[in-house]
C-alpha cells in the first residue's frame, strides 16, 4: 500500500464542503448494494474514510460519482474479504431458478442460505418463487394482471 499524505485542516474542510453533501447518497447506494442497513453503514463509513484518505487525488467537480465509485469498490473489497464474492450473482440466481422448477422449498432455502444473500433478498426470492409457481399453475403469463 502506498503512503498517502495525512490530510491537513484545509483539506479536511474542503472534504467536508465537497463530500459530506453526498453522504446520504453514499449510504443509500451502500444500502442498495448490501441489502442490509448495518452492513451499509459499515460500507459507507469505510468509503468516506477512503475518500478522505485519497482526497488529494480528487480532481474536478464531480464529487458524487467519485464517491459512489469508492462505495462500490469498498463493498467489492468487503465481499472478497468475507468470501461472499466467490461466485458471480448471475450464477447464484441461475442455481435458484434451476431449483425452483419442480424442487421443494427446503432445498431452495438451503441454496439461499449458502449463497450469503441478505435476509430480505432471500425473502424476496421466496416471494418471487411463490409467484412463479402460482402463475405457472394457473397458466397465466408472468407479469400479466388479473
Give a concise summary.
The chain is mainly α and 146 residues long. It is built from seven helices and no strands.
In terms of topology, how is this protein built?
Layout: H1 9-19, H2 23-34, H3 37-53, H4 63-82, H5 89-100, H6 105-115, H7 119-138
Helix pairs in contact: 2-3, 2-4, 3-4, 5-6
Written overview of the protein:
The longest helix has 20 residues. The protein is mainly α and 146 residues long. Helix 2 crosses helix 3 and helix 5 packs antiparallel against helix 6. The chain has two domains: 77 residues, RNA polymerase sigma factor, region 2, helix turn helix motif (Rna Polymerase Sigma Factor, Chain: A); 52 residues, no CATH class. The model has no long low-confidence stretch (mean pLDDT 74). The radius of gyration is 21 Å and the shape is elongated.
Q: What is the N-to-C succession of helices and strands?
A: HHHHHHH
CATH-assigned fold name of the largest domain: Rna Polymerase Sigma Factor, Chain: A
CATH top level class name of the largest domain? Mainly Alpha
The whole-number mean of residue pLDDT values reads 74
Task: Enumerate how many helices there are, as a single number.
Answer: 7
Q: What is the CATH architecture assignment of the largest domain?
A: Orthogonal Bundle
Distance between the amino and carboxyl termini: 58 Å
**Which segments are poorly predicted (pLDDT under 50) over 5 or more consecutive residues?**
none
Q: What is the total tally of β strands?
A: 0
The percent range for strand residues is under 5%
Number of domains: 2
Task: Give Rg in angstroms.
Answer: 21 Å
Shape: elongated
Largest sheet: none
What percentage of residues falls in helices of 4 or more residues? Answer: over 70%
> Which class of secondary structure composition applies to the elements?
mainly alpha
Provide the CATH superfamily of the largest domain: RNA polymerase sigma factor, region 2, helix turn helix motif
Amino acid at each position: 500500500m502506498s503512503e498517502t499524505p495525512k490530510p491537513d485542516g484545509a483539506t479536511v474542510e474542503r472534504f467536508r464542503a465537497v463530500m459530506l453533501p453526498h453522504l446520504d447518497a453514499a449510504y443509500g447506494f451502500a444500502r442498495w448494494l448490501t441489502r442490509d442497513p448495518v452492513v451499509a453503514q459499515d460500507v459507507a463509513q469505510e468509503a468516506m474514510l477512503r475518500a478522505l484518505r485519497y482526497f488529494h487525488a480528487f480532481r474536478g467537480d464531480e464529487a458524487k460519482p467519485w464517491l459512489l465509485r469508492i462505495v462500490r469498490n469498498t463493498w467489492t473489497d468487503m465481499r472478497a474479504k468475507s468470501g461472499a464474492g466467490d461466485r458471480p450473482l448471475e450464477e447464484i440466481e441461475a442455481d435458484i431458478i434451476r431449483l425452483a422448477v419442480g424442487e421443494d422449498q427446503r432445498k431452495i432455502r438451503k441454496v439461499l442460505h449458502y449463497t450469503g444473500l441478505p435476509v430480505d433478498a432471500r425473502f424476496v426470492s421466496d416471494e418471487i418463487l411463490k409467484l412463479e409457481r402460482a402463475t405457472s399453475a394457473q397458466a397465466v403469463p408472468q407479469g400479466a394482471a388479473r
